[in-house]
Task: structure prediction
Amino acid sequence: MLKCLILGSVAALATLTAAPIPAQAAPQILAPPVPPNASVRPYVKVDGKTVVLRHVGLIDGTGATAQDDRTVIVTNGRIAAVGGPNLAAPAGAQVLDLTGRTVLPGIVGMHDHMYYIARPNMDAAGHSEPPLMVPQMTFSSPRLYLAAGVTTMRTTGSVEPYVDLNVKSLIDAGGMVGPHMDVTGPYLEGSSSPFIQMHALRDAADATRTVAYWADMGATSFKAYMNITRAELGAAIQEAHKRGLKLTGHLCSVTYPEAVALGIDNLEHGFFVNTQLDPGKQPDVCPRTAGDPTLLAMTPESPEADRLIRLLVDHHVAVTSTLPVFEQRVPMHSPLNPKAMAVLTVEAREAYLYARNLTNQAPRDRYADAAKEFQNDLGLERKFVAAGGLLIAGPDPTGNGGVIPGFGDQREVELLVEAGFTPVEAIKIATLNGATYLGLADRIGSIAPGKDADLVVVKGDPSKAIADIENVEIVFKDGVGYDAPKLLESVKGRYGQY
Ligand SMILES: [Zn+2]
Result:
């Protein structure tokens, strides 16, 4: 009976899917565009061969000053021309009057997981039962990212790598809604991980084998995690580099300077998870303090900060800012966004509101360090950029449940402005800088003739009021315009479930 049910449901599923999951071609973050199929078409709003965006404000992603009343011409998925209000429209073009709107490059989300963090049986006092799990959000996450203006994303650690690879294949084949994907392999984690879904590496040889296997399967990046040893990290970096792939890390057992010496390409979470000044730090062991004492001691003006930033810049190590997830630890800091709350399941919303309430109601002194760390990190990120460092951006949708795919990417840009960057600088960090890290700055990340038409149209002007970045109306990917509100509507009440 059960077998029949399963076979029956598989048959039913097959009728819903227009095409089977294609086999992975050679790994490529930006696959050649193909037209959307029947399951994607309902979310397409604009798909003329030639589309003209008229009377639109322009933030080009390079950090240049915003311009009013521009014209952007898109032909065959590429940006054909950018000019003033008198730029002639080609014959037969679909013309959109975008008065009161601004166009910016698609966001390149560099810490954009495909899962939700679950705390089983969480109660109002904050108690939950083990194990800690991260259920995969295959349906809702890609839609949420695209609806928010994310046109390219890195998964930055996968718990269901086969699923992420299949999602990428389907998106690239026009059979599923979502951004271009840089699929990161499964977390490269050592022993004693809190996450039951992660493999614990046995030794350096296991790290080499794991990277080799997942690179063969189509993973285009890798991420080390909190309990990896230096030997395992070194082996993983070597294998990834042998294949022309980059490796990042959410570190703890290995300090930032140690990882730089091993050749790491990128460090996740700004300056929050460096353990080099944690008291009693043992080599290859993640201390319980997990970097808090280091960040408290490393004020932006300190000589330690100068030395670390110089080291990172000299070795071309990028840093990923993930401010939304750390904002959750600061009482009364993160806004309660009704549009974001609407996409959560009832259970996910309740769990988040419990956690939020506990943080906001706690005695202030209990969170004084968290607020101080947040301020230190903002200053260090600014200083890193001023010193010539490549800062990239992503939300890290984990934490207490308040960081949500897509919404979190927009919030990250707002928090970069809080850190002291101008709105156009913050947008550059979230667009062109990510493209630069991926080696794709000639294709995406800014608005210029010849580049891919990955564009976001928002109501208002984020160069004047950064919160306008939330008012997404149309998201173009390879020149096809997706209906952002309709995508959001399609996942209402779903995030946390599937
Ligand atoms: Zn993460």
The first strand starts at residue 44 and ends at 46. The pocket of zinc ion is lined by residues 111, 113, 156-157, 250, 396, 398 (CB under 6 Å).
